[in-house]
UniProtKB/TrEMBL annotation:
<dbReference type="InterPro" id="IPR017871">
    <property type="entry name" value="ABC_transporter-like_CS"/>
</dbReference>
<dbReference type="GO" id="GO:0005524">
    <property type="term" value="F:ATP binding"/>
</dbReference>
<keyword id="KW-0067">ATP-binding</keyword>
<keyword id="KW-0547">Nucleotide-binding</keyword>
<dbReference type="GO" id="GO:0016887">
    <property type="term" value="F:ATP hydrolysis activity"/>
</dbReference>
<dbReference type="Pfam" id="PF00005">
    <property type="entry name" value="ABC_tran"/>
</dbReference>
<protein>
    <submittedName>
        <fullName>ABC transporter ATP-binding protein</fullName>
    </submittedName>
</protein>
<dbReference type="InterPro" id="IPR003439">
    <property type="entry name" value="ABC_transporter-like_ATP-bd"/>
</dbReference>
<feature type="domain" description="ABC transporter">
    <location>
        <begin position="2"/>
        <end position="251"/>
    </location>
</feature>
<dbReference type="InterPro" id="IPR003593">
    <property type="entry name" value="AAA+_ATPase"/>
</dbReference>
<dbReference type="InterPro" id="IPR027417">
    <property type="entry name" value="P-loop_NTPase"/>
</dbReference>
<dbReference type="InterPro" id="IPR010230">
    <property type="entry name" value="FeS-cluster_ATPase_SufC"/>
</dbReference>
<comment type="similarity">
    <text>Belongs to the ABC transporter superfamily. Ycf16 family.</text>
</comment>
Length: 254
């Protein structure tokens, strides 16, 4: 479903220098599978999520990104989103003045329009949003508030997963979704993610810690260091990393 081959990417730093971040990364995530990427700070995990979704400022200098058999590395972020790529941010942005419920309706209809589908009517959307919000314990009062403005960390992450439940993307990239969550919020968010598992949908879960993977059991775990994948294995690899850390993989990546 998602196939990355020998990907090299760089970013321009604040002082105008170009810094290579991804250095020959290869990864394949089939439909129906959940893969986790773990690694230390600075290994390139978040950069990978930005590159996959087309964030400005990141230049790919070699390699390829195929999504459902189509090369997408030159496509705009909105094109990739319309094709079904979704990124849950580590630090969700605030949008003052825009009610969350309005934002969700506009996002859903923008994607449907881009795919040549009929837009959802107001009554249809209200039925949909009530159903999905209930799954995550999101109140209508929260939906009326501006996007992420004044929300706690847990509330912001719930909203990220609510967006995914509404948009029903074909492939989810979850960038440190567990960051800032207490135990109860972690379980709620994880339940929402697990509800999105499907035979025709793939997921890439980026995390530092094994605790998220207690709730979202991955099919494969990959260790990232120095801009590339240095080790892959089953779910048990996450337990090994929790116990032993990343030091030995940093040596291999050097």
């Amino acid at each position: 479903m998602l196939k990355i081959e020998n990907l090299h990417c760089k970013v321009e730093t604040a002082d105008g220098e170009e810094k290579p971040i991804l250095k020959g990364l290869s990864l394949e995530v089939p439909a129906g599978e959940v893969h986790a990427i773990m690694g230390p700070n600075g290994s390139g995990k978040s950069t990978l999520s930005y590159v996959l979704t087309g964030r400005e400022g990141y230049e790919c200098t070699a390699g390829s990104i195929e999504f459902q058999g189509e090369e997408i590395s030159e496509q705009a972020p909105e094109e990739r989103a319309a094709k079904g790529l979704y990124l849950s941010f580590q630090y969700p942005v605030e949008i003052p003045g825009v009610p969350t419920i309005t934002f969700l309706k506009e996002a859903l209809n923008a994607q449907r329009k881009a795919r040549g589908e009929t837009e959802v009517s107001a009554p249809e959307f209200m039925k949909l949003i009530r159903e999905k919000a209930k799954q995550l314990g999101v109140s209508m009062d929260m939906l009326k508030r501006a996007v992420n403005v004044g929300f706690s960390g847990g509330e912001k992450k719930r909203m990220e997963i609510l967006q995914a439940l509404v948009l029903e993307p074909k492939f989810l990239i979850l960038d440190e979704t567990d960051s800032g969550l207490d135990i109860d919020a972690l379980k709620t968010v994880s339940d929402g993610v697990n509800a999105l598992r499907a035979p025709d949908r793939g997921m890439l879960v980026i995390t530092h810690y094994q605790r998220l993977l207690d709730h979202i059991t991955p099919d494969r775990v990959h260790v990232m260091a120095n801009g590339r994948i240095v080790k892959s294995g089953g779910p048990e690899l996450a337990n090994e990393l929790e116990a032993e850390g990343y030091d030995k993989y940093l040596g291999e990546a050097a």
